[in-house]
Amino acid sequence: MVIPARVSQVRIPQAEIVGDLGLPVRASGLVIFAHGSGSSRFSTRNRQVAEVLQSRGMGTLLLDLLRPDEEGDRAKVFDIELLARRLVAATRWLRGQPDLAALPVGYFGASTGAGAGLLAAAERGDEVSAVVSRGGRPDLAGSRLNAVKAPTLLIVGGRDEVVLELNQQALAQLQAEAELVVIPGATHLFEEAGALEEVARLAAAWFEARFAGGGASR
After folding, report:
1. Which of 18, 44, 59, 104 has its CB 3.0 to 4.6 Å from that of 214, i.e. a possible disulfide?
2. Could you give the domains of the chain?
């Protein structure tokens, strides 16, 4: 029997943002989620992926990278450096929690959140064990892509042609272990039957393999 993860709201004081932390009884690692523009930590797609990761023994932290008074500011919505700094702040916060500090950390980014996740991974170096991008914009990490050390999985829908081309270009720039998986017939939001389930399966397998041998939370 799978014991449901314990979910609690947490505040990241360094960035004045909040998130929902889901922890299984013993976690093999923890995945921080960065949502795309116009979304939030309540994104049904990210929560569906998070539930799959939790069922496989991984902790999750779904963040609101923008404060309520910032969400309508289009400049901040697309300020990838700001979003990345807040992901870094959340990672530092995790390292300061006694029951979480030893856990391997990964980033799961959707759309613009993927660009922020890769930029943050470049900043944190070896501290980030893995990155997964769902329909992401890795190109938004710019010249910092080649500084990413974390193994990176890019997942794109086969019918999301513009984003697919951007991901192919990003794949050529990544110097770390990287893979591009195209889900046939899927569009940008992976709304097609079985598409999001495949995203969750691929992400879980990627994180599991990179978290292997990591610490465990209480």
Report:
1. 104
2. 6-211 (3.40.50.1820)
